[in-house]
Structures are given as structure tokens and as C-alpha cells.
Amino acid sequence: MAGSVAGVAADAVTSGDLPLQVEEFLTWLQVERGRARNTLSAYRADLRGFVAWLQERGVDIGDVVEADVAAYVAHLRHDGRAASTVKRSLVSVRSYYRFQALEGGAEGDPAADVEVPRVPRGVPKALSEDEVATLIAAVTGDGPLDRRDRAILEVLYGTGVRISELVGLSLGDVDLESRLLRAFGKGSKERIVPIGRFAAEALAAWLGPGGRDELEPQRWARRGDQEAVLLNTRGGRLSRQGAWGIVRRYGDRVGLGDRLTPHVLRHSCATHMLDHGADIRAVQELLGHASISTTQLYTLVSTERLWSVYAAAHPRAFDRPPAGGAPIPHR
Description:
4% strand; 3 strands; hpI Integrase, Chain A; single chain; three-stranded antiparallel sheet; DNA polymerase, domain 1; mainly alpha
């Protein structure tokens, strides 16, 4: 398999970006494992940093031993990198050497026994329901860009899809009659997601006359743009960065600032569903989480909100909840 991968990677190697064996690994991730573009970019960035660090010390990537990997982890920590960043970098290095061992390019994994940094489990910072309503109401007017932007916000919050899944939608992925859409998540995993009434109405307005058709060019510049649900002002498929900027612009308009990102709308969708009694397994399916433990992070938010309401309303409430509950600050 490595031989066929090498052929695909050859063009990338001529640029001198990374050593041949690293390019082979990245191509294997793309071709054999179906990793998403953003995932591949993260692996490339991590391995580029590792290779650059090795080169400064005159160490070939094929001669690395456990002490080298441990020293690299220590270097990242000393450099002030977040624990999550250090962990991701080590996972990328470890994955590379596992691939080399699998293909016979290395006798073992020098990163296998290096301790992975522990990353604190963060609690998603969801918006309140009123804040979401205010955000969406900030889109005024009925022009094509207004319709598009309203659809972006409504769909992100109404379905919980990732921003990359949203901009990747093609017209054939949306069934407004059945109010369903087909999303392709991490690893190109497909799932069917229901579309709520407000999101469906926003999509129908965007896809109807006076919406998307107003941004269609006379001639499509790139293959696939013609089928894109979301278009930019030049008539091409809206990029992830473009959609991200649209969300932040409306966040700034209503005073949310750095609190708002597309992923915060995904967090808010999940949190509000759990607040209103949704089954956690259903939320897991809706969001496309591979593990229920990821979805369980949102139950921490809901528990915290429950204690906040209780502490604020009950005359004999605790200053702090009993063991297992979320801490409540003094009022």
C-alpha cells in the first residue's frame, strides 16, 4: 500500500514542504482513512512543527527515539502551548510512527510510551435562548444576502451542524418537503438531521426566488459550485471562513463579541434541547458525536443551570450544591 500512496504524494514532496515519508502518511490518512480536510491540515501543521524542531537539532525523523519525543513535548510545554495543543501534537506524531511501523518503515513507535498531557474537560459556553433570538433578529431586510445570513444562523442553531458541514451542503442534501438534511461529519460519516420550522422557513426563503438565484453567476467558475447551498457574493461556494465571519459579524452587532462562534451555536442547540428534556442519545445522534461521553459534556451545563435557578429561587437553597452538582457562586 505504501508504494501506491507514495505515487500520489510525489507532487507534494517536490515542494520540499515535508519529507517523503510524512507526505505518504498524510496521503494515507486522506485516501485510506477518509480524514476531513481540516483534520489533515491539523496533522500537517503538527508534523511540520515536529520536523522543524528535529532539523534544528540535526535529527532525522527516521532516527527518532523516545527521548526525542519526550523532549519535544517538554519543548511545547515550555513554549507555553495549551495542554490540548500539546496533546494533539503528540497524537499526530504517534499516529505517524504507528503508520511507519505498519508499513515496515520503522521497528516501533518511539512516541508510544510518552505520557499524553491531561486536558481539563471544558464545559461548553452556550448562549441563552433570549440571546439566540436577539442574534437571529439582528438579520433585517429581505435581500439575497439577508436571506442567506438568516439561513446560516437558523440552520446552525436549529440543527446543531458543524460549520464545515453547513458550507459543504449541496442542493441534493436538503429536503425541505420532509424537513431533513444530509450532513457529512468527521471522517465523511453521513447522518440525517431534522430541520426545525424556523430553519426550514429561512432555507426556503434563501433557496426561493430573490434569494440564492440572485447570487448565481452567468458561468460557474468551479466544479461543484452550482450545487452548493450557500454561495458567496462572487457566486462560488461559501467557504468555512466566510461563514465564520458572517456569524461573528452579527455577534458583534448584538454585543456578543468573542463569546460567539459557529460552534457556540452548536453548543447552544444541544444545551437547549437537553434543558427541554431531550434524550441524550437523541442529541448524540443529532450532533453526530461518535462517543456519548462527548455529548455528556452538555449535561454538565444543564445541571449548572438547574442549580442556578434553584439557588436563586428557593429561600433555603444551598450556597453550593451537594457533591456531584455544579458549584453555584454567591449572589
